[in-house]
Structures are given as C-alpha cells and as structure tokens.
C-alpha cells in the first residue's frame, strides 16, 4: 500500500537550522499532530530505470538495472550500521518497501523505505540525532517525513537542508515563530 503523496501545493519552508532545543520542540509538535513517519535507506549504487525516471537515463531502456559489487557491499555495510536503530522500532513498522520514488522525489537509484507508527515509544528514535539535517548516510537513515492520516505533512531532505510543511496553518506558523524557526511560504 503506497500512500503519502500530498496534493497540497502551498508549502511552508524552514530557512533556519533545526537542532538542539528547536529540534526537540519540533519532534514534540510532530508527535502531537502526526500518526506516522518515514525515512529511507538510499542504495546509491543500484541504478534502476523505470517509466518514472527514464528521462534521467535516456541511454538505457526501461527495466535496466545496474549494481556493481563495491556498491552492493557498501549498502550491506550501511544496512548493518542502521540496523540498531531499526531494531528498536521494528514492531511499529507499518510498511517496508523498495522504490525509486519517495516523498514526491524520483531518483535513479533504489531506496528502502520504512513507514513507522508514530507514538511515544517510536519518538525515542529521534533522540539518536539532535539535528534534523544530521539524519544522513552513511550513519543514519535519511529524509525524515511525517504524515497525518496518510497525507504528507512534513518532509525533509537532509543533504539539501530542506524542510517543508504541507500546510500553511496559523497554528503552524505560530509554533515556528515561538521556537525561533525562520520560514518562507511557497506556492507550487
């Protein structure tokens, strides 16, 4: 059951750092609003060409798959490093699948995607890092995203330092201001 694409086209984008106390407050806010979260484990060395990303690889036919031994070993090592984080939340995994699409982004490489029930137990998962943009390969899962009833509410792309809310509520803006988080509003 793939879900989580949001048709909402107005975004609130955070333009400041989200770490330490601001990070903790954000996690508390998200827990009060959201019922699930997700992240991905990127498999950078495994290229997969599908209809969704064929324009990225015009030289290959749909169905093409490429993975060398070195990148396969790298992913296996990465998977072992993050396993300790997965063990603590494994009973709350709602869904786990592999795809090239994740949170409205299409890439040329595979990602293993985890969707997790958000509760006071799984919230402890976020104590492993104290910076939203610290969730990065090769030590941690990447691109934390949060959902309300299956709809994308907030997504992050750590290596690009992007955090977007798919909402423009006054309550959200007040929360961000009260926690010193600068933002801008975008319309797509």
TrEMBL record:
Any coiled-coil regions, as ranges: 68-95
Q: Which UniProt keywords apply?
A: Coiled coil
Origin, by domain of life? Bacteria
Q: What is this protein called?
A: Uncharacterized protein
């Amino acid at each position: 059951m793939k879900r989580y694409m949001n048709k909402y086209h107005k975004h609130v984008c955070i333009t400041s750092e989200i770490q330490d106390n601001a990070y903790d407050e954000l996690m508390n806010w998200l827990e009060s609003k959201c019922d699930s979260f997700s992240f991905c484990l990127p498999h950078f060395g495994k290229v997969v060409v599908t209809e969704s990303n064929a324009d990225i690889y015009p030289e290959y036919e749909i169905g093409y798959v490429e993975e060398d031994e070195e990148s396969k070993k790298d992913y296996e090592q990465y998977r072992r490093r993050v396993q300790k984080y997965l063990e603590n939340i494994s009973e709350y995994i709602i869904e786990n699948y592999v795809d090239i699409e994740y949170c409205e982004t299409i890439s040329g490489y595979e990602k293993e995607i985890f969707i997790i029930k958000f509760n006071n137990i799984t919230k402890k998962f976020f104590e492993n890092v104290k910076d939203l943009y610290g969730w990065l390969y090769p030590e941690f899962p990447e691109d934390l995203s949060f959902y309300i009833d299956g709809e994308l509410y907030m997504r992050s792309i750590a290596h690009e330092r992007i955090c977007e809310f798919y909402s423009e509520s006054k309550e959200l803006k007040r929360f961000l201001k009260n926690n010193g988080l600068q933002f801008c509003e975008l319309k797509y």
